[in-house]
Each structure stands twice: as C-alpha cells, then as structure tokens.
Specification:
By secondary structure, the chain is α+β, with helices and mostly antiparallel strands. It is built from four helices and four strands. The protein has two domains: 37 residues; 79 residues, 2-Layer Sandwich (Alpha-Beta Plaits), CATH 3.30.70. Strand 2 and strand 3 form a beta hairpin. Bound molecules: nickel (II) ion. The site of nickel (II) ion (NI) has 4 residues, from strand 2.
Length: 138
C-alpha cells in the first residue's frame, strides 16, 4: 500500500474559507482530496510544459454530411497513428457526430493533432484534455 504523509498548512482565514466553498461546490469530501488533485494538476502541467509524455483525450463534434471533412479527418488521424491509442465514434443526431480520440505521447504532438482537427471546415468544437500517464509523474 502507498504510504501516506501528513503535513500542516497555514493559511489566512479568508483564503481557507473561499477554498472550502470552492471544494464543496466541486463535491470534494475533504481538503486532503482537493489538495491532492491540485498537486497532481500542477505536476501534469509541468510535464506538459517540459514536453514529457502525457495522455490526452480529444473530444470533437462535427457535421458528417460534409463528406470531405470525414476523409480529411481520417487522413489526419492516420498521420498521427503512432500517437492515437483508441477512437470512439458516436452518432449524436442525424447531422452531428461525436468523436473521442485517446492519445499518448509528447504534449506538443497531441496539441498538434488537436489543432489540425480544429482547423477542418465543418468541425464545430474540439476540446483537448490532458492527463498524466501515471509513470515518472513524481
Ligand atoms: Ni456519426
């Protein structure tokens, strides 16, 4: 089992009050869990900025009636195939498709993939979310 360490933090009352309000809005059970997430986020940001290997998910919404778009989107995905772990396609409505692309690699490469998809005509929305791959994150 992972060893847990305890440490104390001194904060101004005003800061801890607004932090408590913030974490209760986010449904955290306690401060420790919220602070753990803040630390993890900082470490992921550091990996991102230092060009380390990260895991990322691209969520995109597009109109599949733009036939040219679908084939260009697939071309781009094949250009980045060494980065892409998995894709999922969901038919949202008669017109709209949702595509979820999971990737693992250098943050800058995953960003490049997301930006290429974003630039296609007919793509309504692209969101990139980055997470740690779990190894060497300390
Ligand atoms: Ni579809």
């Amino acid at each position: 089992m992972t060893k847990l360490y305890r440490f104390g933090i001194s904060l101004e009352k005003q800061l801890i009050d607004s932090f408590d309000r913030h974490i209760s809005e986010q449904n955290y059970q306690n401060r420790s869990e919220a602070i753990r997430d803040l630390i993890r986020n900082e470490l992921v940001k550091k990996q991102w900025s230092e060009g380390g290997v990260v895991a990322g998910v691209i969520v995109m919404n597009y109109n599949h009636h733009k036939r040219e778009l679908v084939s260009r989107m697939l071309d781009i995905q094949h250009d980045f195939q060494q980065l892409i772990i998995s894709t999922q396609h969901i038919h949202l409505t008669h017109h709209d498709c949702l595509e979820i692309i999971a990737a693992k690699g250098r943050a800058s490469e995953i960003e490049k993939l997301a930006n290429s998809l974003k630039s296609l005509v007919g793509v309504k929305h692209v969101n990139l979310s980055i997470s740690s791959v779990g190894e060497h994150s300390h």
